[in-house]
Structure formats: C-alpha cells, structure tokens
Amino acid sequence: MMEDFSIEALRCIVGERGVITDEADLAPFCTDWRGMFKGRARCAVLPRCTAEVAAVVRLCAAARVPIVPHGGNTGLSGGATPDASGEQVILSLSRMSAIRSLDVIGETMEVEAGCILQVAQEAAADAGLLLPITLAAEGSARIGGILSTNAGGTNVLRYGMARGRVLGLEVVTADGSIVSGLRQLRKDNAGYDWKQLFIGTEGTLGIITAAVLQLAPKSRQRVTALLAVPSADEALAVLRLARQAIGETLNAFELMSGPALELVARHVGLTTPLAPAPWYVLLEASSSLPSLRDAVEEMLADVLERGAASDGVIAESEKQERELWHLRESITEAEAREGRSIKHDVSVPIALIPAFLRVADEAVMNAFPLARINAFGHAGDGNIHYNVIIPPDADSQALNRLVHDLVVDHGGSISAEHGIGQYRVDELHRCRSAPELELARRIKLALDPAGLMNPGKVLPQTIVTG
Ligand code: 2HG
Ligand code: ZN
C-alpha cells in the first residue's frame, strides 16, 4: 500500500536542518556544475549516518517517491540532477563525511560517502600513504559519487579506475536495507562480489554510504615533465619509450591539443613554458628509488633525439609541478567559458587514438564547418575528452551520434570515466548490444523493481515502467 509522504516525516529522521525546501537553497542541488542539466525537486535531504539514509529510503519507498543521490556534483553527465517533475527527493551525502579509520599496516582507509576526495587524500598523506585517485575536481568530488560513477582521473594508467581501490563497501538498497561489507581484505573470493553492482551504476541500484579503500605507498621522488609533440602518433611513440624506460613509475600520461591550451591561455591566463605545438604531453612519474630523475632525464633526451618530441621541460620545484598540472586541469573551465561545448568522454584502444582523432576531426569538420575541436585527456589509458565547441544552433544529437559511431567503429566506449548519467542514456542504448542491455535490465529489475533509485539515469525509465 502506498503511504503518504511528508517533509515532516523526513525531518523526524534527519533533524530540522537536514531537510532543505527553500527554493534558493535547493537550487544548487537542481543543476550541475556547468548548468547544462536542470531539474526540480521536492526537497534535499541530508542524513547524518547510514541508519538515517536507510530510514529515508524506506520512507520514500513506502510512498513511491524517487530518490536522486547527490555527491560533489562534478560528474558532468547530469547523474545527480533531478528531472523536471518536482517529485524527486535529492539525497545528499554531504553530512556523512567522516574518515572512520585508517590502517597503516594494511594500507586501507574506511571513509564515508560524503568525504571530499582531497580531504581523504590529505588524511592518507598525513599517515605517509597515498590515496591514488586523482581528479581535476578533487577539491569538490565526494567519495560516494566517485565510486558510484567509477571515476577515472589522471592516475588510471598506474592505479586503475576508482573501482580498483574498493576493498569493502556499505550500501543502502532500494528497500532501505543496510548491507555492510566493510571488509579490509585484499583477497575475498567468498561468493558474489556484489560491491561491483553499486560501483559505476550511478545510484540506480542503491546508495553507497561508506567504503574501505586500498591505499598505496607514497613515493619519495616525483618527476613531472611537459613535452611538445608534433602529432598524436608521436605522442604514442613517447608513451612507448616512457613505458620501456620508466614504465612502472609512470603515474600519468596526459595529452593536450594546442587549441586546448590556447583556450586555457585565453580564459584562465596560463601559458605553457614551451613554444606553440600541435600537441603536448604532460607526464608524471614517481618512485621511492633515488635514481628516478636521472632515468626520466635519460628517457627525455632519447625522446628528443628521436624527434618524437620537439621540446620539453622538467619541473624543478613543487611550484613548477603545480603550474604544469594547473594548465592541464584548467582545460574544462576554459572550455566552459568559451561557449557551448558538447562533451564526448570516449575511450578507444590506446594504439588507435591517432587514427580515431584523424577520422573524427575530418568527419566533424565536414558535417559542422563552424565547430572547433577541444581534444585532450588521459592518452596513457585510452581516454580522450573529444569535446566540440559549436554554435548555439548546431544539432548536438547529430554530433553525438557522429562521434560515438566512430568510437564504436574503433572498438571504443562512449563513456570512459564520467558515466552515462542522463546525458548519454539514449546513446548507450544505441551503441550497446541487445543482450548487454537485457542483462542490465534484469539487474535493475532485481534490485530496484519499483524504479525509485535515480530513475532515468543510465537506463531509460521505461525499462521499469514498461
Ligand atoms: C578531465 O580530464 C575531466 O579534466 C573533465 O575528466 C573532462 O571537461 C571534460 O570533458
Ligand atoms: Zn578526464
């Protein structure tokens, strides 16, 4: 039987200050960071502990009220933005931000979903350890959002996606049960690894409330270098040489186009210390072995001698390192200030990046002569942000389709690290095979039969409603 829903009942669970209904206060929860997605909500509810999350979910489930979980709101795919109905409840995990424990021997950390990534990184660093999830948005992104979108970032090359960091998970399922698997185990093959159902599924199967994360040793040496390269092919030649020379120390291998850095210069006022070039590579290596810098210098000399790079600079101080990274991390902001852009967060097999870029550039420019391509990304793991700046009246759906078809032709994925959210639901359906979609449908129906968990995200809502 469907029960009545009341804001008062929510307040009884989370306290007076835990429910936001005022329109102005609610506004930031109803749009994403770029202002691309907008919706309305009944309220935002901010529980203080897992038991309160469970009670909120039970209350909403009984009244058939849909829930939209909300982390740091930095995902860029609209996964945390409610729909236009005004019926949905936003569930923000921001008041659950504790680092519950840190184990220096096992190198693990138990952390609540609302903890900001940078805070967790700093806690690990204070203990002489590393939390190796590194994102441009790390000052705002929260652990729950990072795990429920299986975020990537700049260190995937060495440390893998967010999923790979998760040893244990605590979730609240669609019926309001708490399932706790907060184990610290590296090896745990006892039955289904159900954690994976909640990681990367963007809150459509349940709500992540806490996790045990695998930390890593903190390296004593770090070297950061910026190279100017004549083409994407040469960037891959640099990658190959770097993998051969310093492979296990390579944290990041980022590719930035000349036009991407022009945007950064124009809108953020940062410039590269190198002469203008078609492409740039930003690489970072770290190790505790004292010989790291010598090895990187030797590798760069080799790269320059072979002509794979035309110029290069190694950061001489932490300040210079930060400046080089700041260039890379400012691209998104610069792009947002430039005007309307259509994002394609794609991945292809690494060796096919140059071929993909060639074919896509040609096809996009043919179909959209006024377009400007802003390509950059994590070339070391195959993820290119193939963003396109287009005039306000250009057909974004046609552009999406054009790019995604080429991605599929190259054996790639239409979302490498930002997820599907609401932005790519139709495209996921177009690009994935029927058996894969059917499997997803069966999982959704098994775990959220009423379709109340972040409806309309990842999978079309019609999967549940028929
Ligand atoms: C990055 O790599 C982020 O900087 C943002 O994933 C990507 O703005 C984008 O499209
Ligand atoms: Zn990225």
TrEMBL record:
Pfam families: FAD-oxidase_C, FAD_binding_4
Keywords annotated in UniProt: FAD, Flavoprotein
FAD-binding PCMH-type domain residues: 37-218
InterPro entries, alphabetized: FAD-bd_oxidored_4_C, FAD-bd_PCMH, FAD-bd_PCMH-like_sf, FAD-bd_PCMH_sub1, FAD-bd_PCMH_sub2, FAD-linked_Oxase-like_C, FAD-oxidored/transferase_4, Oxid_FAD_bind_N
Gene3D superfamilies, A to Z: 3.30.465.10, 3.30.70.2190, 3.30.70.2740, Uridine Diphospho-n-acetylenolpyruvylglucosamine Reductase, domain 2, Vanillyl-alcohol Oxidase, Chain A, domain 4
UniProt keyword Flavoprotein, yes or no: yes
Keyword Chloroplast set for record: no
Family that this chain belongs to: Belongs to the FAD-binding oxidoreductase/transferase type 4 family.
Name of the protein this chain belongs to: FAD-binding oxidoreductase
Gene source species: Aromatoleum evansii
